[in-house]
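queue> pop job 88
queue> type: inverse folding (structure -> sequence)
queue> payload:
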């Protein structure tokens, strides 16, 4: 069933588990996430980015996902991840997305609040939930994450600012920076759990962990116990998908049947999504 992000995450926040949020780019990946969710009886969030929209087309994605979600027996939200422009976020709302993210984290606190409130006003009027980010979740291969620890700390979410931001912006969930990063980590990520606990003590809405790929399962579980309710995964899914394609080509380098190629990639990704759902603690939470 197609559901708002707020409805899915409010329950997770209340019962202290997390919901897997999985980035998808094509038909097989969308099917993999929904199939895994149904097998595990778990709520899920399918999310797309600006680059995915450029690749596949907004209405192609939204129509396909919403159609499958409406036919499914598990709660599914369609989320626009890291939206940076007002116009595209509004287009996503109009095309049927049930959740959107406004990422104005590169601006000052006041400007972030201002830009976020503009989206909240429109989205909430349409029954669409809003995620925002405070602090900067860097790129795993970028200089901040790998070379300069003091810069890392400067990019972390400030607990007091988080409380102000949530109260003034009126968002439904908050993406936090606690040592996580987007992309493929070049060193073992070290999450600041004390910072996370401080944020959760002041912010009662669901918290979001971006860049979950590459974070150890035990660390993810600990983050969830300390207040994370949405776990974003992208790179691990791309890796599983490409592993499936590679398997086929290693067995038969002349294979050209896209159904065999896409089918195996889908199977590999489905298994990874099921593992992530288990880590999130959301198995059977659709019951």
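queue> result:
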């Amino acid at each position: 069933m197609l559901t708002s992000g707020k409805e899915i995450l409010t329950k997770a926040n209340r019962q202290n588990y997390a919901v897997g949020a999985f980035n998808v780019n094509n038909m097989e990946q969308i099917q993999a996430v929904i199939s895994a969710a149904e097998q595990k009886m778990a709520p899920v969030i399918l999310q797309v980015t600006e680059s995915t929209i450029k690749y596949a087309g907004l209405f192609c994605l939204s129509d396909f996902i919403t159609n499958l979600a409406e036919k499914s027996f598990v709660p599914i939200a369609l989320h626009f991840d890291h939206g940076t422009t007002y116009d595209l976020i509004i287009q996503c709302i109009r095309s049927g997305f049930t959740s959107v993210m406004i990422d104005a984290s590169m601006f000052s606190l006041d400007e972030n609040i201002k830009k976020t409130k503009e989206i909240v006003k429109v989205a909430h009027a349409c029954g669409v939930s809003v995620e925002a980010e405070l602090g900067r979740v860097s790129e795993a291969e970028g200089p901040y994450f790998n070379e300069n620890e003091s810069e890392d700390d400067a990019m972390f979410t400030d607990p007091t600012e988080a409380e102000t931001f949530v109260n003034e912006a009126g968002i439904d969930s908050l993406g936090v920076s606690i040592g996580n990063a987007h992309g493929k980590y070049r060193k073992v990520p070290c999450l600041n759990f004390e910072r996370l606990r401080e944020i959760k003590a002041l912010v009662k809405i669901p918290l979001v962990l971006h860049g979950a790929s590459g974070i150890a399962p035990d660390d993810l579980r600990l983050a969830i116990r300390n207040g994370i309710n949405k776990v974003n995964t992208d790179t691990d899914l791309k890796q599983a998908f490409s592993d499936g394609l590679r398997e086929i080509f290693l067995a038969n380098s002349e294979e050209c049947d896209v159904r065999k190629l896409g089918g195996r990639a889908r199977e590999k990704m489905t298994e990874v999504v099921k593992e992530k759902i288990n880590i999130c603690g959301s198995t059977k939470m659709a019951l």
